[in-house]
Design brief:
Largest sheet: none
Number of domains: 2
CATH superfamily of the largest domain: Cytochrome c-like domain
Structural class: mainly alpha
CATH topology of the largest domain: Cytochrome Bc1 Complex, Chain D, domain 2
Order of helices and strands: HHHHHHHHHHHH
Number of strands: 0
Shape: globular
Distance between the termini: 41 Å
Number of helices: 12
Helix content: 40-55%
Radius of gyration: 18 Å
CATH class of the largest domain: Mainly Alpha
Strand content: under 5%
Length: 254
Amino acid sequence: MLNKSRVSVVAALFALVSTLVSTAVYASAEFVPKTVGDVENGKKIFTNGKESTGVPACLTCHGEKALGEDSMGTPRLAGQGYTFLVKQLNDFATDKRMDTTMMIMNSNAKGLTETERQDVAAYLSGLNKGEIKVEGSDLAAVKALGQPVGQTHLGKSLAQYGAPDRGIPACHSCHGYNARGAFPIYPALSGQKYVYLVNQLKKWRDASRSNDMMGQMRAVAKKLSDDDIYNVASFLTSADRTTNGNARMPQQQH
């Protein structure tokens, strides 16, 4: 059994590696370094769609506040990192990522120009920005849908410390404290919808989703059991974004 000092060393090494990877990827032309786009046009597309190319309103599946729907398996988009959102929309448009849940995101992304995809991302990334108490999934309601639900305390342990004996890094090492996001590269997972988290982790595990940087998520997910996935998703959906002893988000620090 690993002692606390060894776990701390392992966690520190993962954090260092993730920082170096983030820096390298950030410098890549694949990623947009700052938010650009017409927020009002993005809101218009999210609310009304784009009739000329048959793109429906995004809120139809993601909800009026872009918080996602467990019953449909759709993700929370509100407050997500701009760069991450642009990348996902571009990946859908070029079929680097395939929508095997609603079977609609690839055609929707293709129906938008590159500029319009940036507009939508600019609108969504600004929603609930800096929100501390996130509105994740109601796990009782999820269970009522017939979905298996994990144990939050076990998921917290996995998110914060990983499982070094099984080669599983902490979610924190890339996604930040309680997986609140390490923008511009790593998305926020705290407050994400439970069903979406479970589905994506399973897709990373069987490689049916493969648009992750350097295969990072696939390498982690293939070591996760079903119970690991249910547990960590149960924790992340309701995880606070602030650090213990500090009620402010990183961007609120002086």
